[in-house]
Amino acid sequence: MPKVYIDKDVYTASMERFEYVFTHFDNYYFSVSGGKDSSVMIQLASRVARKYHKKISVMYVDFEAQYRSTIEHIETLIEEISDVLERWYWICLPISLRNAVSVIQPKWVCWNKSEKDIWVRDLPDNQWVIHEDNMPSEWTWFKYGMEFETFILFFGDWFNKMHGGITACGIGIRSDESLNRFRTITNFSKVRYQGIHWTTRVKIRNNDTNVYNFYPIYDWKTSDIWTAVSRFDLKFNQIYEQLYKNGVPLSEQRLCQPYGDDQRKSLDQFRALEYETWERVLQRVHGVNFGNIYCRTSVLGMIKTEKPKMMTWQEYTVFLLESLGLYVPELRDHYYSKIKAFFSWYENKKGISIDEIRDEEDKALENSKKIASWRRIARALEHNDFWMKRLSFSQNQHDVKKLFELQKKYRHLRLVDGDVNDKDLRDLQELINQ
Fold first, then answer.
1. pLDDT-wise least confident of 44-48, 128-132, 150-154, 257-261
2. Residue environment code for 13-33, b if the CB has 16+ CB neighbours within 10 A, otherwise e
3. What's the pTM?
4. Which of 94, 196, 248, 405 could be stapled to 243 by a disulfide with Cβ–Cβ 3.0 to 4.6 Å?
5. Which residues of 167-253 form beta strands (DSSP E)?
6. Number of helices and strands (H, E) in the chain?
C-alpha cells in the first residue's frame, strides 16, 4: 500500500476528525492509558467538545502495578476536562494481563482480592472507581480473569446499549509505533464507518456491534506528540521527563503495562525512577526482576534468544533450572529427570558420556535432534517444553498426571502460551481449563 499524503498538518487533520465524530455519532467515549498518545488525544478532544457543547466519557483500565506518576497524571486529566466530562470509568477489576517477562506466569490478574495483601497499591479513593464490590449490576458479561482485550470489547458494547444509536470509541494509537498498530488501521478486511479509513467496526465473536473505534492521531509521529504538548501547553505524564533524563530513547518509552511485549523494554527504569513502587512490584508480578536485568537483550524473546555472554550453555542450563526451582521446584525436578534420562540414553546407546557432550554442535543437527549439546537442552528449557520433545521425548500418561497436579497446586502456572506450537500440550491445557 503506497503512502497517502494529506495537504494539511496532522494537528489540523485530527481536529477535523474530532469534529466529524461529534457531529456524526450519537455518543462517544475515549480509552486512555495515562501514556502520552491517549493523553494528547483526550485533551484535544475536550477542546472540540467545548466548541460543540458536547459531553464525553472516558474509560481508563487501572492495571494496579503501575507508576505512581501515571495515577497522578490520570487525576490531573480528570480535572483538566471536568467541564466536558460526563463519566470517567476508572476500572479496577480482576483482569488478566500479559506478563512477557515470565514463562511461569505469562498472565497475571490485577486487583485479585485473594492477593490483596501484596497489591502494589490500595484501590483509588474517588467517585469514578469501579471495582468488584460496586460494579454495575448489568455487567453480567464480566468474568473474573477476563482478558483485557475481551473486556474492552464488552465494555464498548455495554456502553452502546446504555446510550443507544451508534457509538464512537476514541483510541490514541499511532500506526508508526508498532506493526500491530499499523495493521489495525490499514487492515482492508475491517468494516469502516461510511468508508472513513480511520475508523473500524468492533466485533464480538464475529458479530457486529454498533461501536466503531476511531483513531484521531493515527498518522502522528512521536515528535508530533511532544510538539503538541509544548505548543498547546498540554498536560503530560511526568514519568516521561524522568525516563528521558535517565537515558531512555523516546522510541522506547512505554507505560501502559510495564510487563507487556513492548513495554518491558523500559522495565529496568521502574527500579530507578520509583523505587518504592518497584519494591511492591517485585512481590506482585512474577519474573519482574529477571525482566529488569534482561529487558534490553533478546533473552526474553521466543523467536531468537541468546544466553548471557558470560555463561556457557551448560551454565545457562543450570541457571534456568535454578530459576525455575525458586518458584516451581516440581517443574525444575521434572525437567532435571528428563535431562538425566537424555544423558543416560546417549551414554548407553551412543557411548557418549556427559563429560563428552559439547556446549554447541552443528545447528542443523541439533534442530533435527541428531546430536546432543548443552545448547539443545537450554533451548528446550527456554521454550518451556514440558514434554521435552526437543530432546526426543514424547507425551506419556505419567507426565499428563504430573501436569494436572502442577496446575492444581500452582494456580498461575500456564505451560501453554499463544506462541507455543504443540498441539498435544495445547489440547491438554484446554482440557485442564474446562
1. 257-261
2. bbbebbebbbeebebbbbbbb
3. 0.65
4. 248
5. 167-171, 199-204, 207-214
6. 16, 10
State yes or no: pLDDT of 100 exceeds 50: no
Give 85's contacts (C-beta < 8 A, 6+ positions apart): 55, 56, 57, 58, 78
Q: What confidence score (pLDDT) does residue 300 get?
A: 40
Phi, psi (degrees; rounded to nearest 5) at 229: -60, -45
Task: Give CA–CA dist 74/256, Å, rounded.
Answer: 12
Q: CA 55, 57, 62 angle in degrees (round to 5)?
A: 155
Tell me how far apart the alpha carbons of residues 138 and 144 are, in angstroms, rounded to a whole number.
15
Rounded Cα distance between 107 and 99, Å, is 5
φ, ψ dihedrals at 213, nearest 5°: -75, 140
Q: How far is CA 377 from CA 313, 328, 382, in A?
A: 9, 19, 9
C-alpha 127/C-alpha 90 separation (Å) is: 9
State the alpha helices, DSSP H only, in 105-190: 148-163, 179-186
Q: Decide if pLDDT at 44 tops 50.
A: yes
d(CA 44, CA 271): 33
